[in-house]
Amino acid sequence: MSTAATAPRPCSVVVFASGRGSNFAALVAAQQRGELPITLRALLSDKRTAPALLLAETAGIDAVSLAPRDFADRAAFDHAIFARAASYAPDLIVLAGYMRMIDAAVIAPWIGKVINIHPSLLPKYPGLHTHARALEARDTLHGASVHFVTAELDGGPVIAQAQLRVQPGDTPETLAARLLPLEHRLLTATVDLIARGRVVLGNDGVELDGRVLRAPLIPIPS
Ligand code: GRF
């Protein structure tokens, strides 16, 4: 009888993206460098022209787009895209620049298996125009969050954040440009923690190594 230990199965991941796909590309790059114990099964998009689809094709990852206008309503589209995701039997779905809210009945059975990256220090500034809103509020600290997805827009339990100091003269564009590389590292670090089974959503909130988090993790130095 063999005594060799069976290697754990890599975490199977499906990514949803609506646009550019730089966060998806960061996951692909980390996985290709052997730094992320995941298998990227597919990139799903609600936009036929999303550059993220081309990034997936180039990386040899299934690239699938579904058009919301081909479905009767939002719930029907959400059912269809999650059914397509389910066909890959993912352990984790990552929303990386996926610009749609998800129907409450569709997301319900997936809660704890879907994460999103959002460019603000949640609970501040859910929704759009986060950089402009942080500047209008004269915030000195801005950043990005990765959270478990619920039916509430950008409202699920926060797992981890990356922080950024606002500089005099910053504009929404300069803030976005400085934040993006931090987002890539934040998302990669958070997916790594989930893939290794260290972070889960428990009954009392986000858990790290079996302990409920009292505050979001800060996995990368600011
Ligand atoms: C990122 O800023 C992310 O936080 C937000 O949408 C943007 C997507 O960028 N949810 P990309 O498509 O990953 O380049």
State the separation between the terminal residues, measured CA to CA: 50 Å
Strand order of the largest sheet: 3-2-1-4-5-6-7
What percentage of amino acids are in beta strands? 15-25%
Name the CATH superfamily classification.
Formyl transferase, N-terminal domain
Order of helices and strands: EHEHEHEHEHEEHEEE
Q: What is the CATH class designation?
A: Alpha Beta
Helix amount, in percent? 25-40%
- What would you report as the Rg, rounded to the nearest angstrom? 17 Å
Number of helices: 6
Which distinct ligands sit in these coordinates? 5-O-phosphono-beta-D-ribofuranosylamine
What do we call the CATH topology? Rossmann fold
Secondary-structure-based class equals: alpha/beta
Name the poorly predicted regions: none
CATH architecture name: 3-Layer(aba) Sandwich
Mean pLDDT: 96
